[in-house]
């Protein structure tokens, strides 16, 4: 059974309870930060921060009013993950429950997943030479539990359930608030996402990108030195072979 999470932006109060519970469950260390002018803290996702609350302040010039929106941000757990297709060593898998998981012990640090992800989710650790991200608490789902972030939310801005049920709830909520959906229904980035957003404003105005439904095979070579060209090309050929093998197995 495939699961999904409904993210209701209109209900989020920016308490960051999801951030804290994510760190506690995954035993992730705290990060030294400073207060940002937009109140977002920490400023971005990182190798040790899987869940991030972004503070968005909208100013309406015609009415001279301001409105806060708080955006829960982490891996989208795409139906057709670009990161998974980009990984040349099958270090990224998609579980039957819908979670996209990086198997750290298999990661070789090529960073192709970082280049491939249109949402900028996978995060690099230079010391460990590994990549990490939210894994939708697949370990909790196996035990019949909700993801830690969902369980901690005090306003039910996050709701976990069977994917088809979550999609229907998103549609109902959109109708009730005359709002917008991102991640399925109105648009299907990379075939649809495991985190489905509903808000009273277009999600693109809050920073969510317009993403194609298809996985792109174009992986930028992140190197400034000609010395890296040969291994990059070799890795690209390895990736294409792995991609073709995976598709043949699926067929």
Can I get a quick summary?
It is built from 7 helices and 10 strands. With 251 residues, the protein is α+β, with helices and mostly antiparallel strands. It has a 4-stranded mixed sheet. The chain has a two-stranded antiparallel ribbon with strand order 2-3.
Characterize the structure shown.
With 251 residues, the chain is an alpha+beta fold. Helix content is 27%, strand content 20%. The protein has 7 helices and 10 strands. It has a 4-stranded mixed β-sheet with strand order 8-1-10-9. A hairpin with a 5-residue loop joins strand 4 (92-94) and strand 5. The radius of gyration is 19 Å and the shape is globular.
Distance, first to last CA = 21 Å
| Run of helices and strands | EHEEHEEHEEHHEHEEH
Detail the poorly predicted runs. Answer: 219-234
Report the count of strand segments: 10
Mean pLDDT: 87
- Count of alpha and pi helical runs: 7
**Percent helix range:** 25-40%
Q: What is the percentage of strand-forming residues? A: 15-25%
Q: What structural category characterises the helix and strand content?
A: alpha+beta
Spatially, the strands of the biggest sheet line up as 8-1-10-9
Gyration radius over CA: 19 Å
Instruction: Profile the largest sheet.
Output: 4 strands, mixed
Shape: globular
Task: Tag the structure with descriptive keywords.
251 residues; alpha+beta; 4-stranded mixed beta sheet; globular
Question: What layout of secondary structure does this protein have?
Answer:
Elements: E1 3-8, H1 17-26, E2 52-60, E3 65-73, H2 82-86, E4 92-94, E5 100-102, H3 112-116, E6 123-125, E7 130-132, H4 138-142, H5 148-152, E8 158-162, H6 163-177, E9 180-182, E10 195-199, H7 229-250
Parallel strand pairs: 1-10
Antiparallel strand pairs: 1-8, 2-3, 4-5, 6-7, 9-10
């Amino acid at each position: 059974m495939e699961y999904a999470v409904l993210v209701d932006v209109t209900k989020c109060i920016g308490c960051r309870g999801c951030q804290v519970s994510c760190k506690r469950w995954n035993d992730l260390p705290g990060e030294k930060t400073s207060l940002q002018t937009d109140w977002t803290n920490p400023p971005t996702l990182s190798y040790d921060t899987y869940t991030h609350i972004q503070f968005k302040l909208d100013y309406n010039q015609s009415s001279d009013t301001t409105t806060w929106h708080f955006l829960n941000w982490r891996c989208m757990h795409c139906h057709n993950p670009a990161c998974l297709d980009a990984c040349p060593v099958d270090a990224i898998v998609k579980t039957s429950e819908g979670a996209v998981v990086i198997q750290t012990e298999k990661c070789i640090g090529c960073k192709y997943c970082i280049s491939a992800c249109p949402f900028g989710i996978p995060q690099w650790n230079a010391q460990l030479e590994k990549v990490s991200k939210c894994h939708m608490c697949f370990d909790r789902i196996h035990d019949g539990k909700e993801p830690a972030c969902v369980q901690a939310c005090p306003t039910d801005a996050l709701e976990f359930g069977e994917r088809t049920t979550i999609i229907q709830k998103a549609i109902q909520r959109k109708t009730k608030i005359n709002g917008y959906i991102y991640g399925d229904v109105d648009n299907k980035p990379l075939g649809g996402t495991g985190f489905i957003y509903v808000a009273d404003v277009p999600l693109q105005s809050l920073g969510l990108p317009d993403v194609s439904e298809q996985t792109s095979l174009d992986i930028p070579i992140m190197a400034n030195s000609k010395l890296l060209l040969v291994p990059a090309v070799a890795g690209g050929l390895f990736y294409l072979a792995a991609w073709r093998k995976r598709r043949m197995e699926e067929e």
